[in-house]
Specification:
Rossmann fold; 6 helices; two-stranded antiparallel sheet; globular
């Protein structure tokens, strides 16, 4: 009986704590000099970044221009029927903004955050890069950091300040719930 009561109280408290951590990370900017900026992918439309992906790329551009890192890693594979990968659309956008191709590294096969970060590990391992700054929407960053650290990265995070997904909106709350579930599902992999 006591164990059942404990679990009935502890489980919701743990879930709410994870959700709180997702929100805390979403509002915490850890931008400082690292070896590479990693932009987590989002939708692209026929080679054109979606509004969400463009906001992530614009934030990475600002960080790159501020000298945070010498490389920007773009991520994301191709959805069925797509002519471009998310990474290709991102690379092309960054190059149109003046980033030299030599400063852009690509992970272009991942279809989710875990696959993309595993691909980033392969891309950066050959260069000996371990310190990364993840760029994404705030709600996405804690899960990305947990996964990146599981892969051996020293990972920091910087949320997109001008995302179309507004802080404290119902849309963001939905993503926080999804990310909380994603973290909880990933935890057994770390044991």
């Amino acid at each position: 009986m006591a164990l059942s009561l404990f679990l009935a109280v502890a489980a919701p408290v743990f879930v709410l704590s994870v959700a709180g951590a997702v929100l805390w990370q979403a509002r915490t900017d850890e931008a400082r000099p690292v070896e590479a900026i990693v932009v987590l992918g989002a939708a692209q439309y026929n080679g054109r970044p979606s509004n969400v992906l463009q906001a992530r790329l614009d934030h990475a551009l600002t960080l790159y221009a501020d000298g945070i890192a010498p490389f920007i890693v773009v991520t994301g594979g191709r959805a069925p029927g797509d002519a471009f990968t998310e990474a290709e659309a991102s690379r092309d956008y960054l190059m149109r903004q003046g980033v030299p191709e030599s400063a852009i590294l690509m992970e272009d096969v991942g279809r989710d955050t875990w696959q993309s970060l595993q691909g980033v590990q392969n891309v950066l391992e050959e260069r000996g890069i371990e310190q990364i700054l993840l760029v994404s929407d705030g709600f996405h960053l804690l899960r990305g950091k947990v996964m990146a650290r599981e892969l051996g990265f020293s990972a920091l995070a910087s949320a997109v300040p001008d995302s179309p997904i507004e802080p404290w909106s119902a849309q963001e709350l939905g993503y926080v719930v999804r990310e909380t579930a994603g973290i909880l599902a990933f935890l057994p992999r770390m044991v």
